[in-house]
Amino acid sequence: MLWMLALICSLPVTNRAQAEKTEPENSKFPMTQSPTYNLEKAEKLARELRGKGIRDKAVLAAIARIPREAFVDEALAEMAYLDRPLPIAEGQTISQPYTVAMQTELLQLEPGDRVLEIGTGGGYQAAVLCEMGVELYSIERYEELYQTARETLNRLGYFPKLYHGDGYEGLPREASFDKILITAAPETIPPKLKEQLRVGGLMVLPLGGRERQQMTVVKRVSETRYSTSTHGDYIFVPMKKGTE
Fold it and tell me: Would you say residue 184 has pLDDT above 60?
């Protein structure tokens, strides 16, 4: 069973009906960030990622606008802008910034794209996607992470459509999607997610077993045909079925 927070990526409303009445044309873009954060470190991080090969200016601009310390435990705040993964609840991690940037760049996002994220985690990747101006749907299997991500994202002015559910099932009622991003590693490409990708759409995922995965881009070429390309080796937590 899916529990949904039906909110637009950047509009603080209580239900979809209200959103349809009040949403301005540019409301997919996030509101001004909280004034309590100094974004100098975020801007420095974006420059470091550019030096490491990230070329998409929109991705770098998004990372420069997001206070990463808001998505980690207060005890880890001093480490928030290091280019490394950090632990969050339920034995999960917030991906290192380079990985977040690389996956986002591989999606080839356009403003207004309908994007499905599998694995909300702490919400940092979701914030990056919101900054890119997409219509974001995100599924998290752990209820604690779902609740924490919702609170953090809303506090920062981001209101994507968040779900507590099984990522392997996707969101068939909302399909199809222009882009799908998976932030945990399945051993094989989930067939239900392939079905929910529109023709011409892209899916980005770390594909493989527990020891090592390859960052993979899947393109839906036609109703029945898909092409794949690989983009380096990574290590992600495994993608699990069900909810907790």
Answer: yes
